[in-house]
Amino acid sequence: MFSALLSYRRYIWRNAWNELRYHYAGTGMGIFWNVIHPLVTILLYTLIFSWIFPQRAKGGGYVLHLTSGLLAWRAFTDTIQRGSNAFIEHARYLKRLAIPPQVFVAKICVTGTLMLFLYYLLLLPISMWLGNDLGWSVIAFPGVLLALQLLAFGLALALAHLRALFPDVEQIVQAILPLWMWTLPVVYPETVIPPSLRAWLWLNPPYMYLRSMRDVLLNRQLPALEEWLAMTFWLCVALGCGIYVNQKLQHDATEAI
């Protein structure tokens, strides 16, 4: 599977970049809408918590906690949701061209990753403006974001095959993703979770990625060794599932679309 992705790396990159460039084709602002949408989201939460809830937003800590979690979750779930529909969306190409189906899931993942990095290129200066100085640990930030998107790729690859065979998977994914968010400290601080349950959060795959990202952004420290190990474990599980399902169901999924 990885050799196929490597062979089509230029195709994946070119199509991912073109999707960013032409997604808003025909509008006056064009490609700049890719910047405006996340910037409006960041500024909206900053203003709301600075003006309406000034005590909670004091120092910008909660604003950054909330915004960083929401932006990462938005990119993660968008990759899973769009990636799970990749075979259906590109059915005409899969039927006519000898392109491995995982290439289309990878293209969506690369597009989501570019958007995620764009989100944080906007968030980091705002973080500094709010008084949260960045330390040298920020060098780990791209690695954590990339690992989160690889986790999404593994899940999306498995779901794309199941979606082609079982149409109800699309509705199941749409129902589960909003519920999944509330099992994680995305919009609420981790401290509201009872200590007896907090120790089990690592069993929720995206948790360690969100925690590591906030360690770098808010605490100016590198993720601890156990966080790297947990992220590596879940990444291997997600990619392993994606590869296994791809090997077992690729032919059936291509025939079903």
Main sheet record: none
In round numbers, the mean pLDDT is: 84
* Percentage of residues in strands: under 5%
- Unreliable stretches (pLDDT < 50, length at least 5) are none
Taking all Cα atoms into account, the compactness measure Rg is 19 Å
Q: Would you report the number of β strands?
A: 0
Quaternary arrangement of the chains shown?
Answer: single chain
Distance between the first and last residues' Cα: 20 Å
Order of helices and strands: HHHHHHHHHHHH
Q: Write down the overall geometry.
A: globular
Return the domain count: 1
Keywords: Cell membrane, Membrane, Transmembrane, Transmembrane helix, Transport
Protein name: Transport permease protein
Pfam family, one: ABC2_membrane
Subcellular location: Cell membrane
Description:
Helix content is 73%, strand content 0%. With 257 residues, it is mostly helical. It has one domain. Helix 4 runs antiparallel to helix 9 (168-181) and helix 7 (102-129) packs antiparallel against helix 8 (141-165). The radius of gyration is 19 Å and the shape is globular.
